[in-house]
UniProtKB/TrEMBL annotation:
GO terms for molecular function: ornithine cyclodeaminase activity. It comes from the Bacteria. The lineage of its organism: Bacteria, Pseudomonadati, Pseudomonadota, Alphaproteobacteria, Hyphomicrobiales. Belongs to the ornithine cyclodeaminase/mu-crystallin family. The keyword Lyase applies. It is an enzyme of class 4 (lyase). It comes from Ancylobacter vacuolatus. This is Ornithine cyclodeaminase. NCBIfam families: PRK07589.1 (NF005762). The keyword Zinc-finger does not apply. Keywords: Lyase.
């Protein structure tokens, strides 16, 4: 018998996503989301894996990020347009879909601008749990845009980071970030340079957005024993770390074929040795070995992380009203009579209403 709601897809809007995060609590949301990511990284080999499909232009990039575990299929649409901030728009926006592999029917449509910020931060903290120095309490955040507070909250929730040192070439961005984070119990210092920001930090997060080769950290700035969380950039021709830092670090990545195109390691030889993070999480490889080791998480974001985030949201919205019931799929009584469904609607259609121009 046909499910009468089989044409209805739960839709989590921006407003609903914010309500869900507030309802759960930001730190708890990040911790639970990190748990879903770790769970999926433990079963990494079962997933379809491919570098994201990217359309690059002089102003930015639009990407599709698909994956499947054989039972569920997920993809994310995401853009990265650094110049958007100059006209009041987000540099990154996204939405995603989770679908049933058996029927091909979508099971969830969700905004992923906010969710991507949360999953990026959760992924950074998951990596740092395996790579950062034990007992790290101070983090430098270089680049204080839209992602910076999420990174700080995730490191607080998962690693206990309590002291932050901020730097951005746009001083108002640092002041905004500091004001937002002091309300969450952080000891925050706004610094005058990247060098000053990293002086006492055990964890260094770079999260800048300009679409160009840049040297946010030079080799002489980075001492032994730190963990570098390289989050910003992520496209061909965009880097943040000087090549010499990479040459004396142990580098950990999500999916090498994608990271070698978009990450910091695009500066290195195509066969330069790196360690896949899923191997560390599953115990098949070693993360941090000693207190003097420099570790780099060359984060570019991968589809499995978005799959985990969509899976978490789908589970979390059950028994709540934090979603709309979206009439997304044509579902005629007789599957082959799609045209008849249209004809029957002709006699029942409502009068057209004026709409707001797109």
């Amino acid at each position: 018998m046909k499910n009468p709601a089989s044409n209805i897809v739960p839709f989590v809007s921006v407003d609903h996503m914010m309500s869900l995060v507030v309802h759960v609590g930001i730190e708890r949301f990040l911790v639970e989301l990190a748990g879903y990511i770790e769970e999926d990284f433990h079963r990494w080999p079962v997933f379809d894996k491919t570098p994201r499909v990217a359309s690059h232009s002089s102003s930015g990039v639009i990407e599709l990020m698909p994956t499947s575990d054989g039972k569920l299929y997920g993809f994310k649409y995401v853009n990265g347009h650094p110049l958007n901030r100059h006209n009041g728009r987000q540099t990154v926006t996204a939405f995603g879909v989770l679908a049933d592999v058996g029927s091909g029917y979508p099971m969830l449509l969700a905004e992923m601008t906010i969710l991507t910020a949360l999953r990026t931060a959760a992924m950074s903290a998951v990596a740092a749990r395996h790579l950062a120095p034990a007992g790290a309490s101070c983090m430098a955040i270089i680049g204080n845009g839209a992602q910076s507070e999420f990174q700080a909250m995730a490191f607080k929730a998962l690693l206990g980071i309590s002291e932050l040192r901020l730097f951005d070439i746009d001083a108002p961005a640092s002041r905004r970030c500091a004001a937002n984070l002091r309300a969450h119990g952080f000891d925050v210092t706004i610094c005058r340079s990247s060098q000053e920001a990293i002086e006492t930090a055990q964890v260094i997060t770079t999260v800048t957005a300009d679409k160009q080769h840049a040297t946010i950290l030079t080799d002489n700035m980075v001492g032994a024993g730190v963990h570098i969380n390289a989050v910003g950039g992520d496209c061909p021709g965009k880097t943040e770390l000087h090549r010499d830092i990479l040459m004396r670090s142990d580098i950990f990545v999500e999916y090498p074929p994608q990271t070698r195109i978009e990450g910091e390691i695009q500066q290195l030889a195509p066969d330069y040795p790196v360690t896949e993070l899923w191997q560390v999480i599953s115990g098949a490889a070693v993360g941090r070995r000693d207190e003097r080791q420099i570790t780099v998480f060359d984060s570019v974001g991968f589809a499995i992380e978005d799959f985990s985030a969509l899976r978490y949201v789908r589970d979390r919205i059950r028994s709540t009203d934090f979603y709309d019931r979206l009439d997304l799929l044509a579902d005629p009584d007789e599957p082959r009579d799609l045209f008849g469904m249209l004809l029957r609607h002709e006699g029942t259609r409502p009068a057209a209403k004026p709409n707001v121009p797109l």
